[in-house]
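Limitations

Structures in this collection are predictions, not experimental determinations, and the ligand pose is part of the prediction. Treat each record accordingly. The example that follows, with nicotinamide-adenine-dinucleotide as the small molecule, is included so readers can see exactly what is and is not provided: the inputs are given verbatim, and the output is the predicted complex.
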Amino acid sequence: MKAVVWQGVNRMGVETVPDPQILQPTDAIVRVTKTAICGSDLHLMDGYVPSMVHGDIVGHEFMGEVVEVGPEVRKVKVGDRVIVPFPIACGKCWFCQKGLTSLCDNSNPNPGLAEKFWGYSPAGLYGYSHITGGYAGGQAQFARTVYADANLYKVPDGLTDEQVLFLTDIFPTGFMGAEHCDIQGGDVVAVFGAGPVGLFGIASAFLLGAERVIAIDRFPERLEMARSYGAETINYEEENVFELLKEMTGGRGPDSVMDAVGLEAQAHGLLGVADAVKQTTRVLESDRPHALRAAIMACRKGGTVSVPGVYGGLADKIPLGAFMNKGLTMKTGQTHVHRYLDRLTGYIQRGEIDPTRIITHRLTLDEAPHAYHIFKHKHDGCIKCVLDPWADPKDHEPTPAPQAQG
Amino acid sequence: MTTNQREDRDRPESPQNSSPTERVLFGAIGAGLIALSLRQRGTVGVLLAAGGALLVAGAAMGQGLGEAVTGVRRTQDDQIKVEKAITVGLGADELYTFWRDFENLPRFMDHLESVKVGGGDGQRSHWVAKAPVGTTVEWDAEITADEPGRRIAWRSLEGATVPNEGAVEFRPAPGDRGTEIHVSLTYRPPGGTLGATVARLLGEDPNIQIEHDLRRLKRLLEVGHIPTTEGQSSGRKGAMKAEAKMYDNRRTS
Ligand SMILES: NC(=O)c1ccc[n+]([C@@H]2O[C@H](COP(=O)([O-])OP(=O)(O)OC[C@H]3O[C@@H](n4cnc5c(N)ncnc54)[C@H](O)[C@@H]3O)[C@@H](O)[C@H]2O)c1
Ligand SMILES: [Zn+2]
Ligand SMILES: [Zn+2]
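Predicted complex:
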């Protein structure tokens, strides 16, 4: 089959690899009909998440048709049309029972590695480095999925692939980001980053009763999209974000602030340069926490900072004084996708949200290297790429990865 | 948890286990590895950087290699003592019953080849363990304490190459969290603590071994399977397989 493979920092290529097989009796093989590229994939591509290995099949947003099930799979049937949540739940442990599926005790085959970096091991994730299990991902024609009964979610009839694909990750991620904001009547929510996660964060904040949402980014098309979801916007390249947020909230500051940017945030100024240089070592500082710093500073006293943005290791100069003295709360985590699926599917079925609106590019799997390129550099108005692994490869050989570049 | 269980530790309990010298030393080695890694391209560079990162992080957090590589804990009479705990979402009785049948132990204790129960009214058992470089070690053991649903203790009989004793306790965890399994193993390795240090450099670290064993037990009993990626597809060839194997505990392909 064809699959997108990490070939080293900044190199994603399409290769022909062996078809996946059932390895354990609770596995199921999915023929992938749609898969998407996530901001998290960019962190992997750029080498900021430790323990990627040349040859890893990437991709954690994927769905398709079940073509084979292991002998112990009971609920899931061959022919089912399913979405695959990106964190893997065993369904049995204390965390899974509590709905905290991204913290599953049992699904990461490499817990020792995770414990070295993070103290305790969270769940295994598809296509997301060896520290979270080294599971082959779903930017491929087929994917092996594990603990099928506890994970694969059957898509209701009448919904298209594109309508449900983002249930695998970014819609629940934006929703959990908003839920973490603990929105009360009259609340103003600020969202740093108007990428796919930020956009679903904005939409979800309104679904959860936010009075106003203010989105911060620098790309006009993303800010435009944010406005179309009802947000007010700030271009951080043109404005003093802190001052403007303060003014827009009558001097109070936003009640909660979401960091939907993560560890590759962009920044100007001396601190920005220092972080960028340290981060190239991947060691002295693995994460660039500009958005997080800004979020902490901007948040009103007693407010909540919600962090769906991904961090991997160590970050410097977090304004802990502001955090402590303003009495803030922080909530974060990889998304517990499973717990939101029924509810969010309902919003889609009732037409209360149209997830397909963020899709700007529909491409073939062979075009993945190009897709990664435009998504990373936000070229060509790219907001979200959806790949079809079975579309006509347009008579060309798999596209080689572009040469490494900054 | 009672405090006297831990009093045989020969150094004070502190989150910063390594001495200042150790920290400076390992920090420096770490920084050196990073510097070196910046000049090495490809896999080697990444590995050096990763190793360096761990050393620097360790030095920063006060957990030196002393703990990670040579921190073998000695009892007064030069024995090795390992204590580990895990919480499993099952009742104490079920866990006790599973463990009490010693023939189940090789199902999750990776270094055990087999345990056969027999003799001494079911109090005796014969153990075969894998030893470094493909050899095996065998010994007989007897149960020294047996409190159903609570505790089992055993020890090797006279003549064992590696005299050892072990105990497991099942304690109800708070709320709906299941049962805590507390294991303590004491043994006298051939070659004393030096032998143990060498053994752990060969990948036979008893601390890590027990931790992995307990996790396998948890996964076996909670889910019925130990998760694996062994045999999954990848775009890997040749040397890259070795790197992935290193991350995946030698399981991956
Ligand atoms: N928690 C989870 O489970 C989870 C799931 C999916 C994605 N994520 C993470 O969410 C983050 C966003 O993902 P995405 O797919 O939207 O990626 P994306 O790259 O499309 O979006 C990031 C956006 O942040 C903007 N940005 C960069 N620096 C900024 C700054 N200093 N201030 C304000 N905006 C800034 C960029 O212009 C971009 O529009 C990533 O870190 C990703 O890994 C987390
Ligand atoms: Zn994602
Ligand atoms: Zn679980």
